[in-house]
Amino acid sequence: MLVSVTGGTGFVGAHSVAAMVSMGHRVRLLVRDPAKAERALAPFGIDHAAVEVVAGDVTSEMSAARALRGADAVLHAASIYSFDSRLHAEMRRINEEGTRIVLDVARRAGADPIIHVSSVAAMFPARGGVINEHSPVGRPRDTYMATKAAAEVIARRHQVEGAPVVITYPPALLGPNDPNLGDQVNRLRGVLRGLTPMWPLGGFPLGDVRDTAALHVGLITARGGTANRYFGPGRYVPTREYMRVLREVTGRALPTLFLPARAMIPVGWLADLVQRIWPWHIPAEHGAIYTCACAVRVAEGVDTHGIDPRPLAATVRDTVRWLYESGHLSERQAGLGGAGVPSALSR
User: What's the confidence (pLDDT) of residue 345?
Assistant: First the structure.
């Protein structure tokens, strides 16, 4: 089967492409920089003959038409996942306009299924204590989340019109081999580098990128199922538990001050304003704080296509090990050099 993929140089996209190739599918990528595609897929040892690269942009209908022509299925994973206020305009362009163009072109190309990679954040803030596949689209006060909600509206419209659009809702994701050192993996790195000693109370849904990739390849292989909305495997993780697992994995004390999330939101707003003129990344972001304030649990029994999430400690361990082995963390930061005492990371 030929699967056209947008966002194949990103965290979710690269892992999903690797999973598809391992199942014998041919993949065609739409990328802005072909050299970046080679770098992103190199860690997976993918056979280059199984991957075709088309240079272009998801906001160009002509580019999308070239990349999707003749495809049996489409995975639309192109998205900017960031709470960096400097990227607001680019988020709207890629996350909203890119989704509108790609889904329109995919329908005309006759692809089935057309998988739109959404986010649990598209339904935040939610009414009640849980979300499921029937939850309404949220109206969040954060640019990233708002653009994912806008893209969700587009995808659901196609579903109402009877198009073979399938929506997946990944949680925040960790795991190895992140081509761009994206938001969630970089936040974990920041904790281990001592850059985020304060955390908001609350929590957020968290999972392993490899489980979400397995969901995508499963949906491609299954074709023609009756359900059209699936949640990426994961679980709601309170911030206190997140830090506890990091301490367990690294063997480090990682002293942390926890404050009420809503009380920290003004700090996030201020950091976002400063970030627009400050050249270096500020780890205190409004969107991350706001997520902890409004995130809710995913309902028990939602459809994950039969895929169970990996244990959180295993995901964190693999992420920290990859960060260390790829040079993003020192031995001490990863918990491998403290007083000669091996951490859970070295097991």
Answer: 64
Residue pair 67/42 in contact by the 8 Å Cβ criterion: no
pLDDT tens-digit readout, 98-132: 999 999 999 999 999 999 999 999 999 998 889 99
Q: How far apart are CA 22 and CA 3, in angstroms?
A: 13
Name the DSSP letter for residue 235: E
- How far is residue 341 from each of residues 53, 84, 168, 251, 320, measured CA to CA in Å? 46, 37, 42, 8, 17
Q: Which fold has domain 2-177+206-234?
A: Rossmann fold (3.40.50)
Indicate the angle between helix axes 209-222 and 11-22, nearest 10 degrees: 50
Residues 6+ apart with CB under 8 A from 259: 198, 199, 200, 201
Express each pLDDT in 144-193 by its tens digit: 999 999 999 999 999 999 999 999 999 999 999 999 999 999 999 999 99
Instruction: Please work out, in degrees rounded to the nearest 5, the angle formed at the alpha carbon of residue 149 by the alpha carbons of 258 and 32.
Output: 100
Assigned token pair, 279: 């050249």
Boundaries of every domain in the chain: 2-177+206-234
Q: How far apart are CA 311 and CA 210, in angstroms?
A: 12
For residues 151 and 163, what is the distance between their CA atoms, to the nearest angstrom?
16
Specify the pTM: 0.94
| CA distances in angstroms from 176 to 39, 44, 324, listed in the order given | 15, 11, 10
d(CA 317, CA 312): 8
